[in-house]
Design a protein that fits this description.
Blueprint: H1 2-6, H2 26-59, H3 72-82, H4 89-96, H5 100-106, H6 115-123
Length: 124
């Protein structure tokens, strides 16, 4: 808001519940400042509650986020298949329901386990 004021730009709400806000006047600046302070104050407790909720969920064994596409069973199948000379990567990745990048991130073309693949086996 300070940047806008320095450039000579004001805010004037014409309709609705905030119609009393006009930052071109002293009283409008006061009302706007109070609303801004309240919004900033409320933001902190919301953030704290969110972090507490995530920590509570983790303590109960729940982890957020998207589930992994590569499972230990898919990884073992990919390792066995990639080691075979007649394997078509496009068919294998379609069968496993993963992308080519995901396949190669976990398994080398010769069927050897890569670091991301080792993580999958350790968590599963």
């Amino acid at each position: 808001m300070h940047d806008l004021t320095e450039r000579g730009i004001g805010l004037k709400v014409l309709t609705g519940q905030g119609a009393a806000i006009d930052t071109t006047t002293a009283s409008g600046k006061l009302v706007f400042g109070i609303f801004a302070a309240l919004a900033e104050f409320e933001r902190e407790p919301i953030s704290e509650r969110t972090l507490a909720g995530l920590a509570s969920a983790r303590a109960r064994g729940r982890n957020g986020g998207r589930p992994y596409k590569m499972t230990p069973a898919k990884l073992r199948l990919a390792m066995a298949s990639m080691g075979q000379p007649g394997t078509r990567v496009s068919d294998l990745r379609t069968e496993l329901g993963i992308t080519r990048q995901t396949l190669y991130r976990h398994v080398s073309p010769s069927g050897e386990l890569r670091p991301d693949g080792a993580k999958v086996l350790s968590r599963g």
